[in-house]
Specification:
It is built from 34 helices and 31 strands. The longest helix is centred in the last third of the chain and has 25 residues, at 557-581. The structure holds phosphoenolpyruvate and magnesium ion. It is an enzyme of class 2 (transferase).
Length: 843
């Protein structure tokens, strides 16, 4: 049977009410009344009633006013379905008029009474009669003269005296609030917060509980947690009418006093201990029965406590975690609900320093928010300047057109990175996320002038090398100077919430980690292993680049092997460090992937250096470097193709992995190693590499007499590998879908160049979203599903995962769960977000 709702409902414990008909505020007031809280008489207008009011059909005013008695003073407040959708501002003291004013003068004194009346006229003029706010300033000194002038202005502007009867005032207030909800700005604002286009507005009309007795009178708000930290704390303010009238000033605002006992001045706790205790008990009741931390609006009316309203406490991301966990720990909500209540994206805010939301932002330029968090530093334009700056202990921001693997050391040294070019999977973005380094890429309005050592922002302002700027990788903004920051907070509540999430989720979460530092971050965030270790970054460190170049210049296989033998111990040490950090877990090492030219210099000075290093004449070096250049390096000799053409590289890497396993094994650390072959497109590639890797394992095993626990798998990142997954899986223990390259190759879209036109493509609806950012389920996803299905036909227990930049996103996790994948792998800082998201999807 369907409940019928009336346009006007006097709120009682049993009145028929619903948030979808009367809005969240009205429903909450009913719940407060049911909890026996002293809520003043309140009437709720349904969404329909408000909608009618907007088109001029006001509700029956006699019926509306009847519950409030003669000459009431009323407040009108919005009640949208979800309080976060907002609504027009409240209008207080409706019913105020000349007669009331005289009464108030006797009670509060002339100045306070005048101020009260003028404030009402002011808000009525601006928000109801829609008059020019500039004409209705509150003078510093509120007196009869000022009030008279304000009344005269009202009359002049509207050709009517200020209305004295409550019916007229209330009717106008209802009409204007109803119309404000239909305005374009209000509509856009709430739609941005997820409200549907036809979201309704309810209104609540409530008796103002501000009596004129001799006892304590005043109004206040209180909440019982800190909005920033989420820790229990009594916070709020109370404004005493008496203190205001007698000018016993407590704090900056007249009549405002502390809530809790305070040595600095009077407090509500001292002034009205019983009412204060009652207020505390109401807070507790709200928490237990409304299952939420509420901000309570209250008044004291001749000493009697009245509860006017309660709304969910506004909270920072950090507080939202702390509050949800505390509610579950106190058994007010189940753990599942605590896990559901925290927005996963909010976690990533907690993992990084952020610009204080209260701080002023002076924006130089905007780009793509590629790696969250904010950091300030002096501008540097090259990787070597960044290293020099770090050596001096000065934080710096590395500003580049785009970054290349050669910039890696500079990125390590910088506290943030800003590039003119690139998208979410560009080099700078991938490395930035891996390092947890705030990063803004694709700031195309930026101009970098290396010669003059200046950068210029969108509005033409320019900044010299050495000046301080701030990169906000959460919003994509670059700011002048160094605004106030909030520190990252990995507190106990955060750990607890994620432990609970792990109990509910049904898909694994690993990290993409290249260095021991990355691996440590991944371990700290309880990643279940490493899903992708990109080994090439290891070759740019220290003096390895030089050795790498010698290897590239080696003529014969033996020469190459000899040079690689010098890299072997370094690489072995890398793996050993990773294995020790990830003790007992799986580590998936991807064999060398990039084209070799990335290790070679492109400018004259670099070529001269190289010639010196490899002891060859400059023309010969230049020629060899040119010969290695490819028209399309991302589709050229990289990945497994390089592994087959120059097999010594993979041999060395396999040996380093196995010897590292032996070394950590001797220390009692068990590791389950996985070796992954990149850019495979044909089964034979896997066969060739597998036989060599197995041979190396055999040799290491024979020498060490230690059994090696390893698996060999394939990184599926070409469309052909998806199509041929059944025969590829015959030789592969696992298939890991590299969605960066797979997206690039499925679309035929360069991941490094797409940034140039991506926004225009998205704007015109060619692509719903940037496919490098949001996994393209219907295209790339189709290929992945096909690959997974075909892989399973030849090897039913093949381990399936995803390791591109999409890995931590909600859409990709949902997709992988649906397809029965074993795990997702994402950058270390996204691991907590992925753990929570996976749990929410499972619940
Ligand atoms: C991929 O292609 O999805 C991947 C993870 O590898 P990379 O980004 O190193 O090419
Ligand atoms: Mg790839």
């Amino acid at each position: 049977q369907q409940t019928t709702y009336k346009p006007l409902t006097l709120i009682t414990p049993t009145a028929a009410m619903s948030p979808a008909v009367h809005g969240g505020r009205a429903k909450c007031l009913q719940r407060l009344i049911r909890l026996d809280m002293p809520v003043p008489v309140t009437v709720a207008l349904s969404f329909d009633a408000v909608h009618e009011a907007a088109i001029g059909n006001l509700p029956d005013m006699d019926e509306l006013l009847a519950p409030f008695g003669d000459a009431p003073l009323l407040s009108v407040r919005p009640s949208s379905q979800d309080p976060d959708w907002g609504g027009p501002g409240a209008i207080l003291n409706v019913g105020m008029n000349d007669a009331r004013y005289v009464e108030l003068i006797n009670w509060l004194g002339e100045e306070t009474a005048t101020k009260l009346y003028m404030r009402f006229v002011q808000s009525y003029a601006i928000h109801v009669a829609r008059l020019d706010p500039d004409e209705f300033h509150m003078p510093d000194q509120a007196d009869a003269k000022g009030l008279k002038a304000m009344m005269a202005t009202f009359e002049y502007e509207t050709d009517m005296p200020f209305p004295q009867d409550v019916e007229t005032q209330l009717a106008e207030v209802l009409r204007s609030m109803a119309r404000a909800w239909d305005g374009t700005t209000a509509r856009l604002l709430r739609q941005a917060k997820g409200a549907p286009a036809d979201a309704g507005l309810g209104l609540v009309v409530q008796a103002m509980a501000s009596g004129t007795g001799q006892g304590e009178c005043g109004q206040g708000v209180v909440q019982f947690v800190d909005s920033v930290t989420g820790q229990p704390k009594i916070i709020g303010r109370y404004v005493s009418s008496h203190l205001a009238a007698t000018r016993e000033i407590g704090r900056e605002t007249e009549g405002a006093i502390y809530l809790t006992r305070d040595t600095r001045g009077p407090s509500l706790e001292d002034l009205c201990p019983d009412q204060f205790a009652q207020l505390i008990s109401y807070g507790d009741l709200c928490r237990k029965r409304l299952r939420e931390e509420m901000e309570i609006k209250f008044t004291l009316q001749d000493g009697a406590l009245r509860i006017l309203d309660a709304v969910r406490v506004q909270r920072s991301s950090r507080a939202s975690v702390r509050i949800a966990v505390a509610l579950a720990e106190d058994q007010i909500i189940p753990r599942e609900e605590a896990v559901m209540r925290v927005e996963p994206a909010a976690l990533s805010e907690l993992l990084h320093r952020q610009v204080d939301p209260q701080a002023a932002r002076d924006v130089i330029v905007r780009g793509i928010a590629a790696s969250p968090g904010a950091a300030s530093g002096r501008i540097v334009l090259t990787a070597s300047e960044a290293q020099a700056s770090a050596a001096r202990g000065e934080p710096c921001v590395l500003v580049r057109r785009e970054t290349t693997p050669e910039d890696i050391r500079g990125m390590h040294a910088a506290s943030a990175v800003l590039t003119m070019r690139g998208g979410v999977t560009s080099h700078a973005a991938v490395i930035g996320r891996g390092l947890g380094l705030p990063c803004v890429v694709g700031a195309s309005d930026l101009v970098i002038d290396r010669k003059s050592g200046r950068i210029t922002g969108a509005d033409g302002r320019s900044f010299a090398v050495g000046e301080t700027i701030t990169v906000d990788g959460t919003t994509g903004q670059v700011l002048v100077g160094e605004p106030k920051m909030l520190e990252a907070a990995l507190d106990g509540a955060f750990q607890t919430l994620l432990d609970w999430a792990d109990d509910f989720r049904d898909i694994g979460v690993r990290a993409n980690a290249d260095t021991p530092a990355d691996a440590q971050t991944a371990a700290n965030f309880a990643a279940e292993g490493i899903g992708l270790c990109r080994t090439e970054h290891m070759f740019f460190e220290g003096d390895r680049l030089g050795v790498m170049r010698e290897m590239i210049f080696a003529e014969e296989s033996d020469d190459r092997r000899a040079v690689l033998d010098r890299l072997l111990p370094m690489q072995r040490a890398d793996f050993q460090a990773l294995f020790e950090i990830m003790a007992g877990k799986s580590v998936c090492v991807r064999l060398f992937d990039p084209p070799l030219h990335e290790f070679l210099p492109s400018d004259k000075a670099g070529l001269r250096d190289l010639a010196e290093q490899v002891a060859l004449p400059l023309p010969e070096v230049t020629e060899r470097v040119h010969a290695l250049a490819e028209y399309n390096p991302m589709l050229g000799m990289r990945g497994v193709r390089l592994g087959i053409a120059l097999p010594e590289i993979y041999d060395m890497q396999a040996r380093a992995i196995f010897e590292a396993m032996v070394a950590v094994g001797q220390k009692g650390v068990a590791i389950s190693a996985e070796i992954m072959i990149p850019l495979v497109s044909a089964m034979r590639e896997v066969e060739l590499i597998k036989s060599r890797v197995d041979a190396v394992a055999h040799a290491v095993r024979a020498k060490s007499r230690i059994d090696l626990d390893y698996r060999l798998g394939v990184m599926v990142e070409t469309p052909r590998a998806c199509l041929r997954a059944h025969d590829i899986a015959e030789h592969a223990d696992f298939l890991s879908f590299g969605t960066n390259d797979l997206t690039q190759m499925t679309y035929g879209l360069s991941r490094d160049d797409a940034g140039r036109f991506m926004s225009s493509y998205v704007q015109q609806g060619v692509y719903a979203e940037d496919p490098f950012h949001t996994l393209d389920i219907e295209g790339v996803g189709e290929l992945i599903a096909l690959g997974a299905e075909r892989g399973r036909t030849s090897r039913p227990d093949v381990v399936l995962s995803i390791c591109g930049e999409h890995g931590g996103s909600r859409a990709a996790i949902a997709f992988c769960r649906e397809k029965g994948f074993d795990y997702v792998s994402c950058s270390p800082f996204r691991v907590p977000v992925a753990r929570l998201t996976a749990a929410q999807l499972a619940l």
